[in-house]
Amino acid sequence: MEGELIIEGFIHIFMMGVLIAIAIVDVKEKKINQKLLWILLLGSFIAIYKRNELSIASAVITMTAMFIPLSFIHVISHKAIGWGDVKLCSCIAPYLGIERAFSMFFIAMSICGLTALILLGMNKANKNKELPFAPFAAIGTVVVLIF
User: Less packed terminus of the chain by CB within 10 Å, N or C?
Assistant: First the structure.
């Protein structure tokens, strides 16, 4: 039992480390690093295997359940959410599970929107300035894991 908690903690630390690395690259380069996404996806599948919560088929369904609506948002919003952000959230989804994945996305979008409003109010940005979404996805992930 204690060993399982240690492994679970290691998985959370690993996943957060990858999310932080993705967030840093997104802030610096305004893009999501594809190699880090693959590592995140691998970590998601390791986490679900270790927890015995989902089958591989369920994990793929969870990814698809996140991917399809976010792809739709990407297209209809004229890329207000980037393609890399769609893939990022889809890679996080198996790790969190579908309900917490959508909660993470809602929290991330809320914090991102609030940040945009604050920056606009402080005249630090204009309505055409892009905010990197990965840091908000990382924050949203931490929030749903804590609560």
Answer: N
Angstrom distance (rounded) from CA 136 to CA 147:
16
Burial of 107 per CB tally in 10 Å (0-12, 13-18, 19+): buried
- What is the Cα–Cα distance from 32 to 81, expressed in whole angstroms? 12
> Are the CB atoms for 59 and 48 separated by under 8 Å?
yes
Residue-wise pLDDT for 10-33, tens only, equals 999 999 999 999 999 999 999 999
**Do 131 and 120 meet the contact criterion of CB atoms below 8 Å apart?**
no
Compute how many other C-beta atoms are within 10 angstroms of the C-beta atom of residue 121: 9
CA distances from 76 to 42, 56, 110, 126, 141 (A): 30, 30, 19, 21, 25
For residue 35 the two structure tokens come to 């190699």
Q: pLDDT tens for residues 47-105?
A: 998 888 778 888 999 999 999 999 999 999 988 899 999 999 999 999 999 999 999 99
User: What is the tally of structural domains in the chain?
Assistant: 1
